[in-house]
Amino acid sequence: MDKFSPQQRSRIMAAVHSDGTRPEIVVRHYLWQHGFRYRVNHRRLPGHPDIVLRRYRTCIFVNGCFWHGHDCGAFRLPKTHTNFWQNKIERNRQRDKEVQRRLATMGWHCITVWECQLSKAVRQHTLESLAFTINHLYLADHAARYPQLEEEGNIDMAAEPIAVHVTERVK
To answer: Exposure string (b/e) for 150-166, b if CB count within 10 Å is 16 or more?
Structure first.
């Protein structure tokens, strides 16, 4: 049973916004402190990613465990209007997959940070892993690519083959 009246619950749910959430601000603050420059809710990209690092061609989605149906201890399906919430959360999951697929076809990397991963106990580890992943993606995308040499028979040869010279004394 809900401890709020339907009017109170409606007012509470209407106050929930999709951008500028506390977990998103935590991630943005960490990235800015560590020299990553970004755009917020880039309107030209599919799904309006929460954080867009254009230099790294990376989009970061900071998802709430409830709204996106994360399989963790923080997610619990409401006991009232269960069918409505199951359908809504399933639609959110499908939309997330489709948006990330579209971004990938456009050449963007997608990273999802879950709200439960930003709890105080594991926050620092999660944020350090995020920075490492972003740097790793950048290095992988910008690594020097050297052409492969065609192999000819003997791989161990470092220079010209040693020719057997017969030396004759000229008289």
So the answer is: eeeeeeeeeeeeeeeee
